[in-house]
Design brief:
Length: 108
C-alpha cells in the first residue's frame, strides 16, 4: 500500500522531537534517545498521526498484530515510559490521553 505523501520521508519532526524512520531512532534537541523497539513503534505511530487521536486498539494492532494476546495495560506502560523520557529530556511535545478515545501527540 502506498503511504500518503505527507507521511513519507526519512525523518519526522514535531517541536524539538525528531524521529528518523530509517534508523528508528528518536532525537530530542539533537540528542539520541534510547527506546525499546515497541516504544519506538508507538512514538512513530503517534508522530506520523500528529494532531490526530490514535486509538488504543490501533496501537495494539500495530504493535502486537491482530492475533497475539497482550496484557491489558501494555499500551499504558509504553505511553508512560515515553512520557517520562520526553519530560526528562526537555521535549516540547506531550502525549495527551483523550479519555475513552486514545492518545494524541502535540506540541506544548
Amino acid at each position: 500500500m502506498r503511504r500518503p505523501s505527507n507521511l513519507v520521508g526519512s525523518s519526522l519532526q514535531l517541536g524539538n522531537l525528531v524521529f528518523d524512520t530509517v534508523s528508528r531512532q528518536a532525537f530530542i534537541n539533537d540528542e539520541p534517545q534510547y527506546l525499546s523497539s515497541r516504544e519506538s513503534a508507538v512514538l512513530e505511530l503517534l508522530i506520523r498521526r500528529r494532531g490526530h487521536v490514535v486509538s488504543k486498539r490501533l496501537l495494539e494492532d500495530e504493535l502486537f498484530g491482530l492475533f497475539n494476546e497482550i496484557a491489558s495495560n501494555a499500551i499504558e506502560v509504553y505511553i508512560h515510559r515515553l512520557r517520562k523520557q520526553l519530560l526528562e529530556h526537555g521535549a516540547t511535545v506531550q502525549i495527551h490521553t483523550i479519555r475513552g478515545v486514545g492518545y494524541l501527540l502535540a506540541e506544548v
